[in-house]
Amino acid sequence: MQQIINFILKYKNFLLYVLLMIIALTFTIRAQSYHHSKFFNSANWLTGNLYESTNSVSTFFSLGIENKKLVEENKRLRHQLFNQKKDPAVLLDSTKINYEVLSGQVIKNSYSLPRNYITLDKGSSDGLEIDMGVITADGILGIVEHTSKNFSLVQSILNVKSRINAKIKNTNHYGSLTWDTEDYRTAQLNDIERLVPLSIGDTIVTGASSSIFPENIPIGVIENFEITTAQSSYHIDVRLFNDMTTVKNVYIIKNTQRKEIIELESKIRND
Amino acid sequence: MTSNSTFIIVIRFILLILVQVLVFNNLNFFGYINPMVYILFLYWYPINDQRFFFILLSFLLGLMVDWFSDTMAIHAAATVTIAYLRPTIMRFCFGANLEFQNFRIANATQAQQIVFLVLLIIIHHLVFFTLEIFSFGNTLLILKKVLFTSMATILLSLLLKTLFSVKKQ
C-alpha cells in the first residue's frame, strides 16, 4: 500500500497529464463521430452573452451593407409575389403551411477549421429546435445541432460531418453535398450518376428527400467536375452562393411535418 | 508565491482567453491562419511554481479556448502537452542557468528566450493540427498548417512579449 502511494506521489505529474489527455481525447473523438458535446459548446450563457455583446458593436459598422442586402432580398421577394398567379390569401392559409420561418443573427462564425460551427442569438425560448435548417438570403448555411435557452449552435455546411441532400436544378438527379476542408468558397457534390449531362455553371439546389430543408433552396453553381475512376459517379466542385465569411442575418426553417415524416420512416425501418 | 503574482496570473489568464477568442480567432489570414497567442501564458508563468497545479491550470486554459471556439478539446490537449513538457524544454534552452535560485526567464539571453517560445509554439501546433485533421493520410496538410500558423503565432507572440515585457532586475 505504502509503495502504491509512493508511486502515485512520485509520478503524480505524469499521471495527471495522462488523465487530462485522455479526457481531452475522449471529448474530441466522441464529438467527431456523434453530436457535439451537449454542455461543451459556445451556445451557452457565458460565451453566448460575451459574443452577443461584442457582436452588437461590430454589427454597427456593417449596418449599411446589411440594409442593402435586405432591401435587395425584399425586392426579389416582392417581384415573385406580384408575378404570382395564385391568390396570396390562399397561400397563407394556415392549414396548408408546411414550413415556418424564424429569423436570427450570427454572433460567432468560423470557416478556417475542418469542423466549423456558427453560433446564433436565438435559442429554444425563441422556438428553435435541433435539426432545423438555417439559410441566408443567398443560400443554405447549415443545420441546428444544439440549442440552449437563448442561443443555438449551427453545424455549418463547411464541416466535414455535414451531409446535405442536393440536386441539379430542374432535374431529379440527387447527390450529397460535403466539404473537403480545402476552400471555404467551394463545397463538393458526390453521388451524381455519370450518365447525367452536366455543364459548368449549372445551379445546385437542395433536394426533396431532406425533411430539414424545403426543396429548391439555392446552394451554388458547378465550378468544375470530374468522373471518379473507381466509381461510376461525378465528383463536382460547387461554388457557394453564400459568402461564408460575412453571414449576418439568417432564417431558420421549421418543417411542421418533420415529426410525422420521421415517425413514418422509423416505422418502415422497424418492419 | 505572493498574492500579487497570483493576481497577475489570474488577470493574464482571463485577458489572454478574451484576446484569443475575440480578436485572434477571427483574423483568418489567407483563409485559415489564426495565431494562438494564449500560449504566452505558459511562457510567462513563474518557473518555480507547483508543477501539478500548473498542468491543471494549462488544461483549463485550453479548455476555455475550446469552449469559445467549438473545437471539442483540441486546444486543451495541445496546451496540457506543452505544460507537461515545459521543464524539459526549459532545461534544453537555459541549461545550467536554471539551477540558480533567482533565475528568471527575463534574465536569460534574447536568443534563449526566443528558442524557448518557438519550441513551445511548434510542439503545441503539432499536437493541435494532428488532432484537428485527425487522419495520418494528410501529413503534408498537417505540416503545412503547422508551418504557416507557427510563423504567425511566433511573430505575434514576440510582438506581445516585447510590448508587455517584465523589466530586468
From TrEMBL, chain A:
Hey, what's the signal peptide range on this chain? none
Q: Does the keyword Metal-binding apply?
A: no
Has UniProt tagged this entry with the keyword Zinc?
no
Cited InterPro entries: Cell/Rod_1, Cell/Rod_MreC_2, MreC, MreC_beta-barrel_core
GO BP, sorted A to Z: regulation of cell shape
User: One GO cellular component from the entry?
Assistant: plasma membrane
Which superkingdom, per the lineage? Bacteria
Q: Which UniProt keywords apply?
A: Cell shape
The Rod shape-determining protein MreC beta-barrel core domain covers 106-254
Q: Which family does it belong to?
A: Belongs to the MreC family.
Q: What is this protein called?
A: Cell shape-determining protein MreC
